[in-house]
Amino acid sequence: MASATSMSRLRTPSLSASNDLRIQLGFPSGDAEISAIYSCSTDRLTVLGSRSVWFGDLYAKEEIELLRELRFHDL
């Protein structure tokens, strides 16, 4: 198994908010999974299994920086 990390930033639009935000990542053939997600800006983050992350409520113009660690299965 190999792993990789990447940084990303989520930002809500200036006039809206997101209630109970959850992101699901899908990989075409199950070749990868989320091994960890670290938040650089909040402690509200919850990993729900290997493909889903729950953030809770985000407010207008709120940003969250994330470090994602993915695990790739050998081909």
Protein traits:
three-stranded antiparallel β-sheet, mainly beta, 75 residues, 6 strands, elongated
Task: Describe this protein's structure.
The protein is an all-beta fold and 75 residues long. 0% of the residues lie in helices and 60% in strands. It has no helices and 6 strands. It has strands at residues 2-11, 18-24, 32-39, 46-48, 52-58, 63-72. Strand 4 (46-48) and strand 5 form a beta hairpin. The mean pLDDT is 71.
Report the sheet with the most strands, covering strand number, pairing sense and barrel closure: 3 strands, antiparallel
- Regions with pLDDT < 50 over 5+ consecutive residues? none
Series of H and E elements: EEEEEE
Helix fraction bin: under 10%
- The beta-strand count equals 6
Q: What's the tally of helices? A: 0
Mean pLDDT equals: 71
- How many domains is the backbone divided into? 1
Q: What percentage of amino acids are in beta strands?
A: over 45%
Q: Strand arrangement, largest sheet?
A: 1-6-3
The value of Rg in angstroms is: 13 Å
Distance between the termini: 9 Å
What is the general shape?
elongated
Structural class: mainly beta
